[in-house]
Structures are given as structure tokens and as C-alpha cells.
């Protein structure tokens, strides 16, 4: 029985030439001669019935067919590498690198607890964790997964819910002693408010409140607008600059210790979701799958939904 894929060596040569830019550079990298590589590409083109490269004495460029074949070949070889890595992982201890992005809110206050048991159980796995207030591009930036807050846009990504995090209004006791405590939502207009400016739009993020069972989005006006790091509103509120809205899980320790005091708790009750997202088109390693299960398994019952 003839081998179906006995030409894969020629495909690897094609990939090497495309990566290195010239046949001579690829020959050096592969430890062979340029003539050997030229014959390999010629055999591949004859097999496919299309020209993949335009070759002159000084330049090498891919044809449209060559670019298409390059993309598909890279994807196929990546899947083979993932399959091999997955089999190795099944044979023993998990290993490899997992790249995860998280916002500062979740990265500082929720994620450490979720990661601790995983890191202890799988010492062979390296977790590269980016904690930043921006939405990374999973594919372009090479991240395996990311944690996102708020409603997710249409993306085709797989989203696994983590929690609906309750929001609250807080201020330092010293500020409330000085300025008085507001009794109604309307009273907030007479107070120093600490709104956050959303980096994606440059607009002030509305405070999400509840009044008489109805959801209210109230946009605070203020002399100070906080940008880039949403945790800055909590720090400034704790220092007595005014009132802020934040997640209850961020404020709860400060509320217990008396560093912050609740403001209008009768108008709390709104929440925002946090989700773990990853691409359905990327073949995830066993380490990635294990980390996904570890994070989501400690938050809510695991379930997947495609954000369409």
C-alpha cells in the first residue's frame, strides 16, 4: 500500500523557504544545498499542479496559490504538533506553556485563588499571565485564553461564564463625615464622584443602580476622571476623594475593616458578568484544557456557549 503523505518532507521544505525568505537561507537552516530544496519545491508544485513560488536570481515571492497553501499547511502542521503534544501529555505529567490574559479587577482579586490549586497540581506547566486593562487579540497576540468582564460582543469565541459580580457604591468614612451621606440617587449629583473613563470609547462609564425594582444607569459628573486602571477609583475613594462604584468582591475587605463605607446600599443589586473566552478554531493543549476546567470549575458549573 503506497504511503499517502510521503511528500510531507517537500511541504516542510516549502514552509522553511517561506519562513526564511530565500532558498539559500533555508538551505543553511536545514543543513543542505539550495539545489536539493529547489527540486523539492518543483516536486511539490508538480504534485499540486500549481506554481507556489516565483523564483528569480534575486527574488522569491509566493503566488496567490502559494500563500493559500502556506496558510493551510502551517495550520495542518500546527494541528499535528498539538496532537503529538496532547499524546505526550496523556502519558504523564502535564507540561507546556499557557498564555492567559485577565483584567486588573479579576487578576488581582479573583484569579490568584483560582490558579493556586492548578499551579500546585501541575508543576510542569508554565502560565504566562498578562494582567492589564485591555482586550487582547487572542489569535494575533498568541493568547490561549482571556478573562473578560461585561457583555461580550459578537465574536464567534467560546465563552464559559465565571460569575455575575455584584456592584456597590462606596466611600471613605472621612469623606462621608465631611460631605454627608447621600440619601437618594439624585443626591449623588451634589457629591464628589469618581467615574471611570472607558478606554475603548473615551466615555464615562455609567453607574449601574437599581431604584424601585428598575435598573437605572446614572452617569456621574465629576472634576476628576480616572482612566486606564479601573482600580484607581477604589484607591482614590479610600483616600477620601469621593464616591465610586466598584465590584463587591473588591470592596468587601475594605468594608469589613472600615476603610470604606457603603453608600446607598438600597440601590445596589446590579451585577456584571465575567467570562473565560477562547477560540473554537484553535487546537488547545491538554494543559490549556486543564486550566480552563480548573478556573471554570471553581466558579460556576461548566458550560460552553458560542458568542455569535
Question: What report would you give on this structure?
Answer:
The protein is α+β, with helices and mostly antiparallel strands and 308 residues long. The chain folds into 2 domains: 8-81, Winged helix-like DNA-binding domain superfamily/Winged helix DNA-binding domain (Arc Repressor Mutant, subunit A), CATH 1.10.10.10; 93-308, D-Maltodextrin-Binding Protein, domain 2, CATH 3.40.190. The protein is 39% helix and 23% strand. The chain contains 11 helices and 14 strands. The protein has helices at residues 8-20, 23-30, 34-48, 64-90, 104-109, 111-121, 138-141, 173-179, 232-238, 248-257, 286-297, and strands at residues 53-55, 60-62, 96-102, 125-131, 145-149, 158-171, 196-197, 207-211, 214-218, 226-227, 243-247, 261-262, 271-278, 305-306. The strands form 4 sheets. Strands 3, 4, 5, 6, 11, 12, 13 and 14 form an 8-stranded mixed sheet that branches. A two-stranded antiparallel ribbon has the order 1-2. A two-stranded parallel ribbon has the order 7-10. α1 packs across α3 (34-48) and α6 crosses α11 (286-297). It starts with 7 loop residues before the first helix and ends with a strand. Residues 300-308 have low confidence and may be disordered.
Helix-strand blueprint:
Elements: H1 8-20, H2 23-30, H3 34-48, E1 53-55, E2 60-62, H4 64-90, E3 96-102, H5 104-109, H6 111-121, E4 125-131, H7 138-141, E5 145-149, E6 158-171, H8 173-179, E7 196-197, E8 207-211, E9 214-218, E10 226-227, H9 232-238, E11 243-247, H10 248-257, E12 261-262, E13 271-278, H11 286-297, E14 305-306
Parallel strand pairs: 3-4, 3-5, 7-10
Antiparallel strand pairs: 1-2, 5-13, 6-11, 6-12, 6-13, 6-14, 8-9
Helix pairs in contact: 1-2, 1-3, 2-3, 6-11
